[in-house]
Design goal:
Length: 145
């Protein structure tokens, strides 16, 4: 994934403003989104368009890996960024000022069972989102390459 390509920021409104502040300040404004809740920027390649798409996600840690949740607020469909990384698992990540390439993978059932409570501890609404949908909300590990 080339970092020199133009990135299309998918979200609109306050999320787009959050991403712009995050990028413009190398994460100084935006990394800590709310007290104790930290976000990273994930860039995936669009599975149909081929364009680079960036979104902001709450994250946790599991050893050296970053952990994100494909919740989409409990929508019955997976978020586009998740479908994109299934098609192309090489992604770009920005955590604060640190930018790196990572390989994304869906957590195994055992990993998900262990990581879900951690992520719901960071963002309790994840538990609510899971009750709103029949799909099992994926937990994703981002491993630096």
């Amino acid at each position: 994934m080339s970092t020199s390509e133009q990135v299309v920021d998918s979200p609109e409104g306050w999320v787009a403003e959050h991403i712009n502040r995050y990028v413009d300040t190398d994460g100084a404004d935006g990394h800590e989104w709310q007290p104790g809740v930290f976000t990273l920027l994930l860039t995936t390649r669009g599975r149909r368009s081929g364009k680079l798409r960036r979104t902001a996600l709450i994250y946790g840690r599991d050893g050296d890996a970053y952990v994100v949740v494909a919740s989409q607020g409990g929508d019955p469909r997976h978020p586009a960024w998740y479908l994109n990384l299934l098609a192309e698992p090489e992604v770009q990540v920005q955590v604060g000022a640190d930018r790196f390439t990572a390989r994304a993978r869906t957590a195994t059932a055992e990993e998900r069972a262990r990581l879900w409570p951690t992520m719901a501890g960071i963002w309790p609404a994840y538990d609510d989102y899971q009750t709103k949908t029949d799909r099992e909300i994926p937990v994703v590990l981002l491993e630096r390459v």
